[in-house]
């Protein structure tokens, strides 16, 4: 019996580029996959492929690297306390330290950050090889709150805090936060707690910069109800079943 149109559409939707397939299967990053493909080390269905954009189904097509079949490994879910000064990429062309330096010595399949923290930011970063789970967390429709503690080089009064809460137009983009509260202040600095439910590029820094407020430190302390707790700087650990359930709520 011929495949139904619905079946054909589902199979077509399951296909991704070959480089992405190797990443989804937890074998390597997309950039590393492109190099492997260019070197002729990757085969699909027994045929050598040098086109990283070739559409394949990671669950159905036989993909091999150096003759060894690539199959999906165990699903891994990590939380990392990212130190300041590291970039959230696998390979950095400028030779800077990356968050993967914190994973050295761990027996892991290839994992990717769920979202990013920029080089100057710190705190809770999730990493996984489960792309469906990651995409669900990153989907703007999910409205998963992210909580940050932000040290600024001024002490805002109630009027300034209210201005922060109203947001600012930056380059034609309205930047706002779900909530902004003063945690504590002393001398010429203060700590704010800022909660976002969307992930725009450098959103907090750009928002505060619109009011000429200098950010001294930016630390993500929670994603949803998952808190970083007492996890040491530069350390990673597996999420528990209860924590995974919390993120799914």
How would you describe the overall organization of this protein?
The protein is an alpha+beta fold and 249 residues long. Helices cover 23% and strands 29% of the residues. The chain is elongated.
The assigned structural class equals alpha+beta
Tally of DSSP β-strands: 17
- Helix and strand run: HEHHEEEEEEEEHEHEEEEHEEEH
| Integer-rounded radius of gyration | 21 Å
Ends: how far apart? 41 Å
The low-pLDDT segments are 4-11
Number of helices: 7
Classify the helix fraction into a percent range.
10-25%
Shape: elongated
Proportion of strand residues: 25-35%
Average pLDDT figure: 89
Major sheet details: 9 strands, mixed
Entry summary:
The chain is α+β, with helices and mostly antiparallel strands and 249 residues long. It has helices spanning 5-14, 18-24, 30-38, 131-138, 158-166, 203-209, 241-248, and strands spanning 16-17, 42-44, 47-48, 55-56, 63-65, 68-69, 77-82, 112-113, 122-128, 146-152, 168-170, 173-175, 179-186, 189-196, 215-223, 226-227, 236-238. The protein is elongated and about 65 Å long.
């Amino acid at each position: 019996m011929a495949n139904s149109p619905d079946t054909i559409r589902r199979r077509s939707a399951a296909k991704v580029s070959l480089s992405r397939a190797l990443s989804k299967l937890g074998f390597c990053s997309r950039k590393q996959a492109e190099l492997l493909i260019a070197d002729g080390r990757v085969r699909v269905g027994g045929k050598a492929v040098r086109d990283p954009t070739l559409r394949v189904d990671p669950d159905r097509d036989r993909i091999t690297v150096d003759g060894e079949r690539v199959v999906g490994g165990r699903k891994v879910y990590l939380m990392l306390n990212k130190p300041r000064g590291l970039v959230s990429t696998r390979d950095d062309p400028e030779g800077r330290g990356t968050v993967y330096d914190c994973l050295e010595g761990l027996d892991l399949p290839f994992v990717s950050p769920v979202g990013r923290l920029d080089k100057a930011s710190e705190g809770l970063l999730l990493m996984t090889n489960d792309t469906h789970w990651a995409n669900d967390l990153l989907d703007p429709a999910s409205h998963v709150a992210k909580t940050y503690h932000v040290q600024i080089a001024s002490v805002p009064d109630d009027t300034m805090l209210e201005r922060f809460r109203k947001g600012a137009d930056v380059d034609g983009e309205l930047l706002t936060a779900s909530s902004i509260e003063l945690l504590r202040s002393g001398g010429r600095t203060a700590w704010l707690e800022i909660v976002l439910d969307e992930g725009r590029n450098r959103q907090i820094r750009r928002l505060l910069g619109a009011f000429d407020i200098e950010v001294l430190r930016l630390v993500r302390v929670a994603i949803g109800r998952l808190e970083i707790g007492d996890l040491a700087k530069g350390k990673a650990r597996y999420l528990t079943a209860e924590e995974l359930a919390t993120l799914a709520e």
